Amino acid sequence: MRFSVIPIFTVVLTLYSATLSAQSDSGVAWQRYEAKSEWWVNAGMLSYHFDRSAGYNNLNLGLGVEYRFASTASLTAGRFYNSDRDYSNYAGVYWQPLVVGPIKAGAVVGGFNGYPTTNHGGWFAAALPALTVEGKRIGANVFIIPTIGNRVHGALSVQFKLKVSP
Fold first, then answer.
1. Is the C-alpha dihedral spanning 90, 71, 69, 165 positive or negative?
2. Contact 75/90 with Cβ under 8 angstroms?
3. What are phi and psi of 50, to 5 degrees?
4. Where do the domains of the chain lie, and which CATH numbers do they carry?
């Protein structure tokens, strides 16, 4: 199945613009730590692979959860249909100490499996740059996945999420 990711990024930019207009300070700053207790769910990711000729799967559907326990950190776990058209599981932690207007910036660090050319499909550790925008009920995580030989398929991925608790 082929689709254009342009509408995806249009939605992300619209979400960013709407959130930015509601805030007056858009400079880079360290985010103040605040305890939180929020549950989010997602339906996988949409990816734009840098190697467009390889035929990777861009529609990475699945189910994931995220528990935001602090303004700067959250736990995440889930399962999705990956770029190699196989199932992957993941578990990790976001650490996003920086804010640029409404955007949280940092990294997600954790483990993944299900990629046949990386550790023969077994679990492996990964750290990815991650940006997050969260509204009252909807949000988005954006990941920058670097290309690493034939083991990791570089992509820009967007994960839309829905808050299911206060």
1. negative
2. no
3. -65, -35
4. 6-163 (2.40.160.20)
What pTM was computed for the model?
0.83
Which SS3 state, helix, strand or coil, does residue 19 take? Answer: helix
The tokens describing 160, both together, are 């839309």
The first and second tokens of residue 135, run together, are 């509204």
pLDDT in 10s for each residue of the chain, 166 residues: 455 555 555 555 555 554 444 444 558 999 999 999 999 999 999 999 999 999 999 999 999 999 999 999 999 999 999 999 999 999 999 999 999 999 999 999 999 999 999 999 999 999 999 999 999 999 999 999 999 888 889 999 999 999 999 8
Dihedral angle sign, alpha carbons of residues 89, 50, 143, 123 = positive
As a 3-state breakdown, the chain gives helix, strand, coil percent values, each rounded to 5, of 15, 55, 30
